[in-house]
Amino acid sequence: MKIYQQSLTEMKKIVKRYTQQTTDLKIETSVREILANVRQKKDQALREYELKFDQAKIQDFKIPAEQLTAALNEISPALKQALEHAKRNIISFHQMELENGFIDTRVSGIIRGQKVTPLQRVGLYVPGGTAAYPSTILMAALPAKIAGVDQVIMVTPPQKNGIAPAVLAAAKIAGVDAVYQVGGAQAIAALAYGTESIPPVNKIVGPGNIFVATAKKQVFGQVAIDMVAGPSEIGILADKTADPQELAADLLSQAEHDKRARAMLITNSLELAQKVSQAVDEQLQSLPRKEIAAASVADRGFIAVMNSIPEMFALMNEVAPEHLEIQLADSAQYLSLIRNAGSVFLGRYASEPLGDYLAGPNHVLPTGGTAKFSSPLGVYDFVKKTQFIQFSSAALKADLADITQLARTEGLEGHARAVEQRFK
């Protein structure tokens, strides 16, 4: 891995090259055409795109419910146990995110409040292609169910040998209401606009490739989305007390996702940096997804050696990584120094894959520096809030002068007259 020894100012410039989001105009144009075609031709367009992109001839997009049940019976007892274990932890964590509305009656004659309402229908995109992701189904569907969403529908690309039983079993365990075999930008279009087979949703969640991310961005406004997720990222803050072999393994755990994934280590020890770089090279040799991980490390991975721990945190807050491991002595004491990160892993035994699969906090996280203003997927993503007010005649009359003053200052005479009408 590349090792940098630069000032904090210079390193902040360098990390921008690794974390900034880029726009591909060719993909933007291609996705826009796909969305328009699906909106117009609906199922017919979906079938044409699935044949073109996935080499799949689809007659019925919906997977029969009994196939989900059969998949649950087909997977190994060990996998079923692991999925159920993850489900329990995800539920126990996300139940604590539930929000209640409120009513304020402190002033006589005035009632103000807010009600929290679950979304009616949510679409979940689950990637296919180079890997199957049953964990993503649990992470996205279970918070929606906890929130009280009426219907969770899932789309995932068709596979030559059929959708993996682990994926269908996870959908069954998570309580997904319907599964459709369609992927890519065309699946996002179907969820946004609806087709003869697939109903339109209120919100689309879940990760995907650049075509899926671009499509989500373009349909935003027609529907809500969770985020425009980019390639996976891991940032590690470590000092000389950390184990270089463990750090290398954690870096590779994210590099193997995608050639565009980002693996970053920031330390105050040149010796550790050199050992980790060597360990990454060694561990790559036996990694099954070596080609993907090697490209990620070579093109987008780096190690930065800083002068002090405060500089390390200042730089990592600039990176704003999706996953952040703090492998420093007494790591928990540094949590307050983190301002920008999707999910934080404290100490040697909080390896990033723990969060991917089993701990309970969500693994659908902001990427590409968007942790500076975005949050992990949670129950709060599946509800909407409505305000309400009720005033008595006396309460409104007491505020009449201020309301009409503000209305006429803004040149909105109709606003002023609407309130005055109550007292004529």
UniProtKB/TrEMBL annotation:
CDD domains, alphabetized: Histidinol_dh
Gene3D superfamilies, per this entry?
A: 1.20.5.1300, Nitrogenase molybdenum iron protein domain
Matching entries from InterPro entries are given as: Ald_DH/histidinol_DH, Histidinol_DH_CS, Histidinol_DH_monofunct, Hstdl_DH
Q: What is its EC number?
A: 1.1.1.23
Cofactor remark from the record: Binds 1 zinc ion per subunit.
Q: Which cofactor does it need?
A: Zn(2+)
- Residues involved in substrate binding: 232, 254, 257, 323, 356, 410, 415
The processes (GO biological process) annotated in the record are: L-histidine biosynthetic process
Binding residues annotated for NAD(+), in chain numbering: 125, 186, 209
Residues annotated as binding Zn(2+) are 254, 257, 356, 415
Q: Which residues are the active-site ones?
A: 322-323
Which SUPFAM superfamilies did the record assign? ALDH-like
Give the record's GO CC terms: cytosol
Q: Which reaction does it catalyse?
A: L-histidinol + 2 NAD(+) + H2O = L-histidine + 2 NADH + 3 H(+)
Pathway of this protein? Amino-acid biosynthesis; L-histidine biosynthesis; L-histidine from 5-phospho-alpha-D-ribose 1-diphosphate: step 9/9
One Pfam match, given by its short name, reads Histidinol_dh
| MF GO annotations | histidinol dehydrogenase activity; NAD binding; zinc ion binding
Per UniProt, the keywords (alphabetical) are: Amino-acid biosynthesis, Histidine biosynthesis, Metal-binding, NAD, Oxidoreductase, Zinc
Whether Transmembrane counts among this entry's keywords is no
* Alphabetized PANTHER family for the sequence: HISTIDINE BIOSYNTHESIS TRIFUNCTIONAL PROTEIN, HISTIDINOL DEHYDROGENASE HDH
Task: Write out the similarity annotation.
Answer: Belongs to the histidinol dehydrogenase family.
Give the protein's function.
Catalyzes the sequential NAD-dependent oxidations of L-histidinol to L-histidinaldehyde and then to L-histidine.
Protein name according to UniProt: Histidinol dehydrogenase
Q: Which organism is it from?
A: Liquorilactobacillus vini DSM 20605
Encoding gene (name): hisD
